[in-house]
Amino acid sequence: MHQPTPRSLIVDLLSTLRRGSMPVAALCQAAALFGIADGSVRVALHRLQAEGRVESDERGQYRLGAAAAPVQAVVAGWRDLDRRTRAWNGRWIAVHGDVARRSRTRIDPAARALRLFGFESLAPGLWVRPANLREGVDGVRAALKELGLPAAALVYEIGELDPATDARARSLWDGEALVGGYRAARREIDASSARLPRLPEADAMVESFRLGGRVLQQLVLDPLLPAPLVDERERRALVESMRAYDRLGRAAWAVFLGRHGVPHRTAPADTRWAAESFAKSA
I need a labelling partner for 109 at 20 to 30 A (CA). Which of 126, 141, 192, 238 fits? Predict the structure, then answer.
Protein backbone atom coordinates (compact mmCIF):
# COMPACT_ATOMS: atom_id res chain seq x y z
CA MET A 1 0.00 0.00 0.00
CA HIS A 2 1.03 3.57 -0.61
CA GLN A 3 3.53 5.15 1.78
CA PRO A 4 2.75 8.86 2.17
CA THR A 5 5.46 11.49 1.97
CA PRO A 6 5.61 14.16 4.70
CA ARG A 7 4.05 16.66 2.28
CA SER A 8 1.18 14.43 1.14
CA LEU A 9 0.47 13.33 4.70
CA ILE A 10 0.18 16.94 5.88
CA VAL A 11 -2.05 18.02 2.98
CA ASP A 12 -4.26 14.99 3.39
CA LEU A 13 -4.73 15.38 7.12
CA LEU A 14 -5.45 19.10 6.85
CA SER A 15 -7.97 18.44 4.09
CA THR A 16 -10.09 16.37 6.48
CA LEU A 17 -10.75 19.28 8.84
CA ARG A 18 -14.33 20.44 9.19
CA ARG A 19 -13.15 23.82 10.40
CA GLY A 20 -10.24 25.29 12.29
CA SER A 21 -6.74 23.89 12.17
CA MET A 22 -4.45 21.13 13.40
CA PRO A 23 -1.56 21.46 15.88
CA VAL A 24 1.96 20.46 14.95
CA ALA A 25 1.90 17.83 17.71
CA ALA A 26 -1.00 16.02 16.05
CA LEU A 27 0.68 16.12 12.66
CA CYS A 28 3.91 14.77 14.11
CA GLN A 29 2.20 11.97 16.02
CA ALA A 30 0.23 10.95 12.95
CA ALA A 31 3.39 11.00 10.84
CA ALA A 32 5.16 8.77 13.38
CA LEU A 33 2.63 6.02 12.61
CA PHE A 34 4.10 5.92 9.10
CA GLY A 35 7.74 6.09 10.22
CA ILE A 36 8.09 9.78 9.36
CA ALA A 37 10.30 11.77 11.76
CA ASP A 38 9.24 15.00 13.44
CA GLY A 39 12.00 16.88 11.67
CA SER A 40 10.72 15.82 8.26
CA VAL A 41 7.24 17.03 9.17
CA ARG A 42 8.52 20.42 10.26
CA VAL A 43 10.64 20.85 7.13
CA ALA A 44 7.66 19.92 4.94
CA LEU A 45 5.42 22.35 6.82
CA HIS A 46 7.93 25.15 6.31
CA ARG A 47 8.12 24.48 2.56
CA LEU A 48 4.36 24.09 2.14
CA GLN A 49 3.83 27.35 3.99
CA ALA A 50 6.36 29.12 1.75
CA GLU A 51 4.39 27.86 -1.26
CA GLY A 52 1.09 29.03 0.20
CA ARG A 53 -0.29 25.49 0.39
CA VAL A 54 -0.67 25.67 4.17
CA GLU A 55 -1.15 28.54 6.58
CA SER A 56 -0.55 28.83 10.33
CA ASP A 57 -1.77 31.02 13.17
CA GLU A 58 0.06 32.38 16.17
CA ARG A 59 -0.48 29.16 18.13
CA GLY A 60 1.35 26.98 15.64
CA GLN A 61 -1.88 25.53 14.28
CA TYR A 62 -1.98 24.69 10.57
CA ARG A 63 -4.71 24.65 7.94
CA LEU A 64 -4.76 24.43 4.14
CA GLY A 65 -3.67 27.58 2.31
CA ALA A 66 -5.15 29.40 -0.65
CA ALA A 67 -2.64 27.93 -3.12
CA ALA A 68 -4.08 24.45 -2.50
CA ALA A 69 -7.62 25.53 -3.37
CA PRO A 70 -7.74 24.88 -7.16
CA VAL A 71 -6.66 21.26 -6.90
CA GLN A 72 -8.71 20.76 -3.75
CA ALA A 73 -11.80 21.91 -5.65
CA VAL A 74 -11.27 19.09 -8.16
CA VAL A 75 -10.50 16.52 -5.49
CA ALA A 76 -13.59 17.52 -3.50
CA GLY A 77 -15.83 16.07 -6.22
CA TRP A 78 -14.74 12.46 -5.84
CA ARG A 79 -17.97 11.42 -4.12
CA ASP A 80 -20.06 12.79 -7.01
CA LEU A 81 -18.15 11.33 -9.93
CA ASP A 82 -21.19 9.43 -11.13
CA ARG A 83 -23.06 12.74 -11.45
CA ARG A 84 -20.32 14.49 -13.43
CA THR A 85 -20.93 12.64 -16.69
CA ARG A 86 -23.63 12.53 -19.34
CA ALA A 87 -24.33 10.37 -22.39
CA TRP A 88 -21.59 10.68 -25.00
CA ASN A 89 -22.42 11.89 -28.49
CA GLY A 90 -19.05 10.90 -29.96
CA ARG A 91 -17.56 14.40 -29.87
CA TRP A 92 -14.36 15.44 -28.12
CA ILE A 93 -13.03 18.28 -25.97
CA ALA A 94 -9.65 19.33 -27.31
CA VAL A 95 -6.80 21.39 -25.89
CA HIS A 96 -4.23 22.89 -28.23
CA GLY A 97 -1.10 24.49 -26.84
CA ASP A 98 2.43 24.05 -25.56
CA VAL A 99 2.07 21.85 -22.47
CA ALA A 100 5.24 20.63 -20.81
CA ARG A 101 5.63 17.08 -19.61
CA ARG A 102 6.88 16.08 -16.19
CA SER A 103 10.62 16.26 -15.63
CA ARG A 104 12.72 15.06 -12.72
CA THR A 105 12.89 18.52 -11.21
CA ARG A 106 9.64 20.24 -12.15
CA ILE A 107 5.94 19.49 -12.46
CA ASP A 108 4.18 21.67 -15.01
CA PRO A 109 0.78 22.83 -13.68
CA ALA A 110 -0.74 22.61 -17.15
CA ALA A 111 0.26 18.96 -17.56
CA ARG A 112 -1.19 18.24 -14.12
CA ALA A 113 -4.42 19.99 -15.05
CA LEU A 114 -4.81 17.89 -18.19
CA ARG A 115 -4.12 14.74 -16.20
CA LEU A 116 -6.76 15.63 -13.65
CA PHE A 117 -9.33 15.97 -16.45
CA GLY A 118 -8.36 12.77 -18.24
CA PHE A 119 -6.82 14.28 -21.39
CA GLU A 120 -4.42 12.28 -23.54
CA SER A 121 -2.21 13.38 -26.43
CA LEU A 122 -3.66 12.69 -29.87
CA ALA A 123 -1.00 14.64 -31.80
CA PRO A 124 1.88 16.99 -30.93
CA GLY A 125 0.34 19.91 -29.05
CA LEU A 126 -3.17 18.42 -29.21
CA TRP A 127 -4.85 16.76 -26.22
CA VAL A 128 -8.34 15.25 -26.24
CA ARG A 129 -10.94 13.61 -24.04
CA PRO A 130 -14.55 12.54 -24.69
CA ALA A 131 -17.05 15.41 -24.43
CA ASN A 132 -19.16 13.61 -21.83
CA LEU A 133 -18.64 15.89 -18.81
CA ARG A 134 -21.70 17.75 -17.59
CA GLU A 135 -19.83 21.04 -17.17
CA GLY A 136 -19.26 21.08 -20.93
CA VAL A 137 -16.42 22.71 -22.75
CA ASP A 138 -16.93 26.08 -21.01
CA GLY A 139 -16.69 24.53 -17.55
CA VAL A 140 -13.68 22.42 -18.46
CA ARG A 141 -11.94 25.42 -19.97
CA ALA A 142 -12.47 27.51 -16.84
CA ALA A 143 -11.25 24.72 -14.55
CA LEU A 144 -8.15 24.04 -16.64
CA LYS A 145 -7.21 27.71 -16.68
CA GLU A 146 -7.60 27.95 -12.91
CA LEU A 147 -5.40 24.89 -12.49
CA GLY A 148 -2.60 26.41 -14.53
CA LEU A 149 -3.29 25.89 -18.23
CA PRO A 150 -1.68 28.81 -20.10
CA ALA A 151 -4.07 31.55 -21.16
CA ALA A 152 -2.93 31.13 -24.76
CA ALA A 153 -3.98 27.48 -24.90
CA LEU A 154 -7.14 26.83 -26.90
CA VAL A 155 -9.92 24.67 -25.41
CA TYR A 156 -12.75 23.75 -27.77
CA GLU A 157 -15.04 20.93 -28.91
CA ILE A 158 -14.44 18.92 -32.03
CA GLY A 159 -16.34 16.23 -33.88
CA GLU A 160 -16.58 14.33 -37.16
CA LEU A 161 -13.03 13.05 -37.03
CA ASP A 162 -12.14 10.78 -39.92
CA PRO A 163 -12.66 7.10 -38.99
CA ALA A 164 -8.96 6.33 -38.53
CA THR A 165 -8.32 9.33 -36.29
CA ASP A 166 -11.47 8.68 -34.29
CA ALA A 167 -10.40 5.08 -33.74
CA ARG A 168 -6.95 6.26 -32.65
CA ALA A 169 -8.51 8.73 -30.22
CA ARG A 170 -10.65 6.00 -28.69
CA SER A 171 -7.59 3.81 -28.22
CA LEU A 172 -5.72 6.39 -26.11
CA TRP A 173 -7.21 4.86 -22.94
CA ASP A 174 -7.18 1.21 -21.86
CA GLY A 175 -10.77 0.61 -20.80
CA GLU A 176 -10.17 -3.00 -19.80
CA ALA A 177 -7.32 -1.99 -17.52
CA LEU A 178 -9.49 0.68 -15.90
CA VAL A 179 -12.26 -1.82 -15.19
CA GLY A 180 -9.71 -4.27 -13.82
CA GLY A 181 -8.49 -1.53 -11.50
CA TYR A 182 -12.03 -0.79 -10.30
CA ARG A 183 -12.62 -4.44 -9.46
CA ALA A 184 -9.26 -4.89 -7.74
CA ALA A 185 -9.84 -1.81 -5.59
CA ARG A 186 -13.27 -3.07 -4.54
CA ARG A 187 -11.77 -6.41 -3.48
CA GLU A 188 -9.21 -4.60 -1.34
CA ILE A 189 -11.89 -2.38 0.18
CA ASP A 190 -14.06 -5.38 1.04
CA ALA A 191 -11.17 -7.21 2.71
CA SER A 192 -10.06 -4.15 4.67
CA SER A 193 -13.63 -3.28 5.71
CA ALA A 194 -13.96 -6.69 7.35
CA ARG A 195 -10.58 -6.33 9.05
CA LEU A 196 -10.63 -2.75 10.36
CA PRO A 197 -13.02 -3.22 13.32
CA ARG A 198 -10.72 -5.90 14.77
CA LEU A 199 -7.47 -3.96 14.43
CA PRO A 200 -5.77 -1.91 17.17
CA GLU A 201 -6.39 1.83 16.80
CA ALA A 202 -3.01 2.68 15.29
CA ASP A 203 -3.13 -0.20 12.79
CA ALA A 204 -6.64 0.74 11.71
CA MET A 205 -5.58 4.36 11.25
CA VAL A 206 -2.62 3.41 9.08
CA GLU A 207 -4.46 0.86 6.95
CA SER A 208 -7.49 3.06 6.30
CA PHE A 209 -5.27 6.03 5.46
CA ARG A 210 -3.11 4.12 3.01
CA LEU A 211 -5.81 2.18 1.23
CA GLY A 212 -8.40 4.94 1.34
CA GLY A 213 -5.93 7.48 0.08
CA ARG A 214 -4.79 5.29 -2.78
CA VAL A 215 -8.30 4.46 -3.94
CA LEU A 216 -9.37 8.08 -3.75
CA GLN A 217 -6.38 9.04 -5.82
CA GLN A 218 -7.43 6.38 -8.33
CA LEU A 219 -10.93 7.84 -8.50
CA VAL A 220 -9.90 11.46 -8.83
CA LEU A 221 -7.40 10.63 -11.56
CA ASP A 222 -9.93 8.48 -13.39
CA PRO A 223 -10.58 9.87 -16.90
CA LEU A 224 -14.36 9.39 -16.48
CA LEU A 225 -14.70 7.68 -19.81
CA PRO A 226 -18.14 6.98 -21.26
CA ALA A 227 -19.55 3.78 -22.68
CA PRO A 228 -18.50 2.13 -24.90
CA LEU A 229 -14.93 3.03 -23.93
CA VAL A 230 -15.40 1.68 -20.40
CA ASP A 231 -18.06 -0.07 -18.31
CA GLU A 232 -19.40 2.86 -16.29
CA ARG A 233 -21.27 0.55 -13.90
CA GLU A 234 -17.96 -0.72 -12.53
CA ARG A 235 -16.78 2.81 -11.80
CA ARG A 236 -20.03 3.65 -10.03
CA ALA A 237 -19.74 0.51 -7.94
CA LEU A 238 -16.25 1.51 -6.81
CA VAL A 239 -17.45 4.99 -5.84
CA GLU A 240 -20.20 3.45 -3.71
CA SER A 241 -17.73 1.09 -2.02
CA MET A 242 -15.35 3.96 -1.35
CA ARG A 243 -18.07 6.09 0.23
CA ALA A 244 -18.75 3.32 2.75
CA TYR A 245 -15.04 2.69 3.36
CA ASP A 246 -14.39 6.37 3.95
CA ARG A 247 -16.88 6.31 6.81
CA LEU A 248 -14.98 3.43 8.37
CA GLY A 249 -11.69 5.27 7.93
CA ARG A 250 -13.01 8.39 9.58
CA ALA A 251 -14.24 6.35 12.51
CA ALA A 252 -10.76 4.86 12.86
CA TRP A 253 -9.23 8.35 13.12
CA ALA A 254 -11.94 10.00 15.23
CA VAL A 255 -10.54 9.14 18.68
CA PHE A 256 -7.03 10.29 17.75
CA LEU A 257 -8.26 13.61 16.38
CA GLY A 258 -10.54 14.08 19.35
CA ARG A 259 -7.60 13.67 21.75
CA HIS A 260 -5.92 16.60 20.01
CA GLY A 261 -9.06 18.72 20.01
CA VAL A 262 -9.11 18.74 16.21
CA PRO A 263 -12.54 19.39 14.59
CA HIS A 264 -13.03 16.75 11.95
CA ARG A 265 -15.73 15.71 9.57
CA THR A 266 -18.18 13.09 10.75
CA ALA A 267 -19.55 12.79 7.24
CA PRO A 268 -17.56 11.08 4.47
CA ALA A 269 -14.42 12.85 3.37
CA ASP A 270 -14.59 15.41 0.60
CA THR A 271 -10.86 15.67 -0.07
CA ARG A 272 -7.80 13.53 0.30
CA TRP A 273 -4.48 13.04 -1.46
CA ALA A 274 -4.60 16.48 -2.91
CA ALA A 275 -1.97 18.64 -4.56
CA GLU A 276 1.14 16.66 -3.73
CA SER A 277 -0.17 13.23 -4.73
CA PHE A 278 -1.71 14.45 -7.97
CA ALA A 279 1.35 16.46 -8.86
CA LYS A 280 3.32 13.23 -8.84
CA SER A 281 0.85 11.68 -11.26
CA ALA A 282 0.97 14.43 -13.87
Answer: 238
Residue-level length of the chain: 282
Q: How far apart are CA 13 and CA 37, in angstroms?
A: 16
Name residue 260's amino acid. H
> Which residue range forms the structural domain that includes residue 211?
174-257
Q: How much is the pTM?
A: 0.86
What is the tens place of the pLDDT at every residue in 222-262? 999 999 999 999 999 999 999 999 999 989 999 998 888 88
- Identify the helix (H) or strand (E) that includes residue 126: strand 126-130
Q: Could you give the 3-state DSSP secondary structure of residue 133?
A: strand
What CATH number has the domain bearing residue 143?
3.30.70
Instruction: Classify residue 240: in a domain, yes or no.
Output: yes
Nearest to residue 9, comparing CAs of 282, 275, 225? 275
| Spatial CA neighbour of 216 closest among 189, 253, 251, 256 | 189
Q: Report the run of H or E that residue 249 belongs to, with start and end.
A: helix 232-259
Distance CA 41, CA 38 (A): 5
